[in-house]
Amino acid sequence: MYCLNCGKPIPDGTKFCTGCGASQENKQSQQGQVRQRNRPMGKGMKILIGIASAAAITAAAVLLIPLMKGDAGKRIVTTPSSEPTATVISDYSGVYVFEVSDATVPFTISYWTYTLNRDGTYVEDLLWISGTQSTEGHNTGTWVIVDGQLITTPEGTYVVSTTFGINGDRLVMEFGDLLLTFKKQN
After folding, report:
1. Tens digits of per-residue pLDDT, 143-164?
2. Of 46-55, 72-81, 174-183, the least confident
3. What are the Cα distances from residue 172, in Å, to 79, 94, 124, 180, 186?
4. Which has the closest alpha carbon to 66: 143, 6, 146?
């Protein structure tokens, strides 16, 4: 039996609660109601509530996240990839060529291009020369627009994503202390 006032467990037939001193001289049906209301929640009920909460959060995420990623007025193409589904805005696909840096680059850039394909993949080609050493690169991966920025993720074991700001027909990348601009070719 539980106290009708404070809910503390007390021996059956007790006239006064040993915890709060309240009289227990009420109808038997009221005692049953209080007993049910004050009983601790069972483990099964806690698990059921946890599962229901997780399902509600997952459903909300599945419905709301795609709505938050879209850019108004642009055609959105969803493509499968080895990563989670990428949201690609086809207006950004094309070839972007290195144009300028905001400061003196400590090496010569012979060429540096990013080709963004409509299927959400990209190709990066570059040739840098520094003194007598040259660095030539050919990278592939996936690209996606998130919060108004372009993010490229290369394939392979050494994966470092690159984030570009978008300024009209130009992509702007932070490269160390430099800002490098790539212009979209027509």
Report:
1. 988 888 888 988 876 667 888 9
2. 72-81
3. 25, 15, 15, 6, 18
4. 146
Q: Which residues are bridge partners to 115 per DSSP?
A: 95, 123
Contacts by residues 60-69 (CB-CB < 8 Å, ≥ 24 positions apart): 69/145, 69/146
- C-alpha dist (Å) from residue 114 to 55, 72, 161, 180: 40, 25, 14, 13
| Lookup result for tokens 């227990």 | 24
145 contacts: CB under 8 Å, gap ≥ 6: 69, 71, 87, 88, 89, 92, 151, 166
Least confident of 39-43, 76-80, 99-103: 76-80
Residue 152, both tokens: 């490229």
